[in-house]
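Take a record:
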Amino acid sequence: ADLLFMLHASQGEFLRLIVAPGTVEDMFDAGWRSFNLAEKYQTPVVVLCDEFLANATRTIERSQLGFEGVRIDRGALLSNEELDALTEPFKRYEFTETGVSPGAIPGHPKGIFQACSDEHDEYGHFEDEDAENRVKMVEKRHQKWYTALADMRPPSHYGPEDADLTLVCWGSTYGACYEAVNRLNADGGPTANMIHFTDLWPMAEETVRPILERAKRLVDVESNITGQFARHLRT
């Protein structure tokens, strides 16, 4: 799974959300959460999985998958009543404080809009690609990054708080790190804990930095030759 490619692959800085499940339970959560996040922020969501999890076989009880937590969140949608009350054409790309413009379920005659390329005015029209509109649209889309932070989960922690080593991992390295922490703590040598990330982007520095700074010694564990996630954290 190429994290850095997924972070930067686009013509321009368009938001995409990235989650990397580490267990079967995480994969179940990533499925329904990603549909919600994609609709709520009207942007692609990448579920960054790898061959280990894709091909792994494991028996798991239905009760362990957390069906009770599944919910549907389609984000900002105008109701039929709100569409009925419109006195001007539908602003599908309306400027908002959150960066997310309210959408509409297809079918209402006042919910029709035009979409031209990546830049347009609030109505979706192409002819208003002037500097002022362009700057406002770029800032509107970028605001989604900050708004989406509220839905991104912090890393999980396992092991003693005051450990000598802290393993930092993401995705399917969870299992190997979990076993390593248990074995190190049972051997009477240096103690260990682990921090596991599933929500990789966007990432709030004010949330992650204090967690990393509490560690005595950080050890990055990942399944690629260049240490992609370590580079991501340093950035």
Residues 58 and 78 are 43 Å apart (CA to CA). DSSP finds eight helices and seven strands in the chain. The mean pLDDT is 92.
